[in-house]
Write a structure and sequence with these properties.
By secondary structure, the chain is α+β, with helices and mostly antiparallel strands. The chain contains 10 helices and 6 strands.
Length: 232
Amino acid sequence: MGGQACVSYGAAEFSRDTDLAILASSENLARLKKSLKDLKAEVIAVPPFEAKYLRNGHAVHFRCNHADALGMRVDVMTKMRGVASFSTLWKRRTTLEIDGANIELMGLPDLVQAKKTQRDKDWPMIRRLVEVNYFANRETPTKDQIRFWFLELRTPKLLIELAQQNQVPAQLFKQRPLLKTLKVEDESLLTQLLIEEEEKEREEDRQYWRPLKKQLETLRHSRVSRDKFSTV
């Protein structure tokens, strides 16, 4: 997931980081620890690399020191706001073959959902991800693609175009109320509703992270106090 996945879906983004969604089972974490050891990766911030923090929704951050990946950052997560469980993500993944190796990407709808954060940089990326998919498939779309576009397009003109060519599934109105206004074909109104929709998601993300940030601050304080004590 993250910037590397966005590149693979055609929404170019410069990123030296590698973001991974992982299954936080003891067996899988043991495999990951071995791989990180091969990369000479070290944890660069709180929290420590422990299953309880991953399962609680935290990200664990590493910096690689191996010559072939020097300075590369690796971030791992298990749980994300509004995103399905890992088992569901795995079933819906996209598999690419690159240089003879399979690369497993978070499915596009799940990647878009994971990008709905409070960070400014994520919202333009959501727009690009969905538009790339729309332009590549709008001539012969599947029902799933049409549903995805109605739920996730963030460009007023394209939402209106989509509604002109396809009936909005009634069950989607509850998930995305602004779809009820598409018949009006008012781009200014849609622009305002999209802004309000984005701000609602940002606020929900801020609320989601508030207790997690408190936990991180407590961990940082404990580590600083421990380090001070050990140097006395």
